[in-house]
Amino acid sequence: MDEDKRESTAADRIAVTNIIPGLLSLLLVQGRTSINGTNLVGKYIAASTVKISNRNGLSLRNPNEISRSANALLRVLRHGLCSFIHNKSKSALNDKIFQQQIRSFITSQVQRSCSYEITTTRVRTAREIDNKSPTKVRKAFDQDTGEVFAGATSIKKEIWSKSMAVANHNWNASLRKLYSTTSTDLLNKVLDTNNQLIFDFDESRVIVNNGTASEETIRIKDIHPVLPESNKNIKKWIAKCEMYIVGSHCYFGSGAARGEDIKRLPETKHYQVVFNSLRYELHSLKNEMHGVKKNKNVAHWLSPIQSRLCVLQLVSLYPAVEQSQSYSLTDSSQFDTLASDMFAEVMGMKQSISTKWCRDLIAQITNYIAPSPLNKTSTHPIMAQQFHHSSQTHNNHYSSSTFVTDPDSNEKISNVLFACRFIWSALGDGSSSTTIRSNEVSHRNFSRADLDNAAKKAYSSASARATDQQASAVMHVMNNFQHAFVLFGCG
């Protein structure tokens, strides 16, 4: 048995014992080591509130960091105590005696624990300081101008509304640099979104049928790039194409992926073309630990134009690059860098920013342009009660998704793809001509609770309520009976 196997086996055996839970429980019930002093947990809490700054000095962490660190330790100690009690129960012979022993242990030692007192006090005081500290705006958008902000970066609407158009133009130009002029006609037909695209891995093809000439079938793998060996320009254009395919998957594929998630793009066999758009799925590993996988695959879509560019690159260009002796494809571990570089280029930035802020900026753009009809539709709280649950439960689990019908096939389209078309159009994608709806609500039946909430905000009073006259006035306005205002008295 090698060393790694021995360590793994030993860890597995230790995990099912009470060694680690016992040590944590011992730390939890440890008393003060001196009069009016502290214990090991207190010393750890004190040490974790400071950090080394500029390599030669110490500084206090911000209150939010201190609170989160103390809260994390508290959860570990509680988890250790629960595991300790659970493991002890396996060897117990009498349930009643065991319950009495545990109750006595908790009331006499755990509830009076010095470690609990130190940790919870640090959580409360740090939160109190944090609540009184000046706050900073991390993410926002301007409703009037459309400018978005995240971190220390802002992007004007004039820039982000053309970002996909810029990406499509640059990607197309970079890709065409790798093919001869004799392939121009074939490339034009493949990239024409009016021609039917059939994605079938190596047998992917485009069918041209304009109604006047005979039908033409073009196999994409039969379009060969021209890659002369050891050419710096060719290497540069290949890198550009890689940057745009990764960046588009990350930021233009309906939503935005995390930097670590984009490193795990799906294999080509898992792609699918539906309604002229390339569909793929990404899986996030965020918060997954201890072998428990709760995150599900999330479907993403590329716009029709980017779908064609992507398929051409995957089926025609990449096999040729892999067979070349002078060129190679970027390792997937560097995909996050490619994504942030593309984002900076299409958004007109002088330098790249982290994928975290790129993702947050895309979220702010989506918040600004996503029309309200794309949201799920729920019902009145009174009607929700008729289903024997609260209105919040109805909103979360029983609301209705929006669907539209594809004009060509007369089939229902997923509400995600429906939303994508609006977002692509807003970002300047030429193949998505869907009209962007106004952010203003054209019609809505307000409930009395909505009006009361508006009154609370307007009067800055938690006890404020909308009067019957105010409610009636709003109802008339929303039903386009504006002249009815003359029938109401003051107030």
Folded structure, characterized:
The chain has 491 residues and is mainly α. The protein folds into 3 domains: 16-132, no CATH class; 148-369, no CATH class; 448-487, no CATH class. The protein contains 18 helices and 13 strands. The strands form 5 sheets. Strands 3-4-5 form a 3-stranded antiparallel beta sheet. The protein has a 3-stranded antiparallel beta sheet with strand order 6-7-8, covered by helices on one side. Residues 371-375 and 435-443 have low confidence and may be disordered.
* Biggest sheet overview: 3 strands, antiparallel
How many strands appear in the DSSP assignment? Answer: 13
* Low-confidence runs: 371-375, 435-443
Q: What number is the mean pLDDT?
A: 83
**How many structurally independent domains?**
3
Q: Termini separation (Å)?
A: 85 Å
Shape: extended
Which structural class do you get from the secondary structure elements? mainly alpha
Rg on CA atoms, Å: 30 Å
Strand residues, percent: 5-15%
Q: What's the arrangement of strands in the largest beta sheet?
A: 3-4-5
